[in-house]
Design a protein that fits this description.
CATH architecture of the largest domain: Roll
CATH topology of the largest domain: Thiol Ester Dehydrase, Chain A
Distance between the termini: 89 Å
Largest sheet: 6 strands, antiparallel
Oligomer: single chain
Number of strands: 6
Number of helices: 7
CATH superfamily of the largest domain: Hotdog Thioesterase
Order of helices and strands: HHEEHHHHHEEEE
Strand content: 15-25%
Structural class: alpha+beta
Shape: flat
Radius of gyration: 28 Å
Length: about 220
């Protein structure tokens, strides 16, 4: 009987030693594999090509059909849903010249040389010229989208309230003298008691460039 216990004890010790040996051998390999995967994921997410991927249509992901008691809101919401995922506007070109950049710098107090000092920018900036402030490009969204006729999609609309932004990116610098234009796509809508919350993806296209100067998800509240 003693021999059996000794045998089991010995095998348990062997198993523990083998387990520890394999852990020591495999741990560096798993660590290297983990670092490699993390690197690939990071590089993929930082790849400029990713910026031009179409947005996910959130209206079709685990979303129940809402119950709407207000007839006006119901009709407006159903009409908006028909346009989700569609580009509803490509605006006219607008030039971002140095005078506009300088005036924005004066108003905001952001006079960093990459925006305002053309001589230094030519010598030291990787862009070889001055560039517009990211927030200047963002602030031009109302101007770049003003040609959109809301009544084509939102008949009976009485008032629009700007609720803000969910996210903003500046994938590519807008150089002084560039032409830009706004492109708008409806990506989601949420009906409320007396309004519809509208989520638009506004992309600021830079003439002659594949990457956008700005991509922003705007949130508007529409009252009917």
């Amino acid at each position: 009987m003693i021999d059996v216990f000794e045998f089991i004890k010995e095998k348990k010790a062997d198993f523990k030693n083998n387990t520890e040996r394999y852990r020591v051998m495999l741990e560096p390999k798993f660590k290297a594999l983990s670092e490699k995967l993390n690197g690939k994921i990071t590089n993929t997410l930082n790849n400029p090509w990713m910026f031009n991927l179409p947005s996910i249509d959130r209206s079709k992901i685990f979303k129940k059909k809402p119950t709407i008691n207000n007839e006006k809101i119901k009709n407006a919401y159903e009409k908006i849903v028909e346009s989700i995922g569609k580009e509803i506007l490509v605006g006219p070109w607008e030039t971002v010249d140095q005078d506009r950049i300088n005036r924005f710098a004066d108003v905001t107090g952001d006079r960093q040389w990459i925006h305002t000092d053309l001589t230094k920018a030519k010598l030291e900036s990787p862009f070889k010229t001055t560039i517009a402030h990211g927030f200047l490009t963002l602030s031009l969204i109302p101007k770049l989208t003003e040609d959109f006729d809301f009544n084509t999609i939102h008949p009976g609309l009485k008032m629009i309230v700007n609720c803000g932004l969910n996210q903003v990116r500046f994938p590519f610098p807008v150089k002084s003298g560039s032409k830009i234009r706004g492109r708008v796509k409806i990506i989601d809508a949420v009906p409320n008691k007396n309004n519809v919350e509208l989520f638009n993806e506004v992309s600021i296209e830079v003439e002659g460039r594949k990457r956008f100067g700005c991509v922003a998800e705007t949130v508007l509240r529409l009252y009917y």
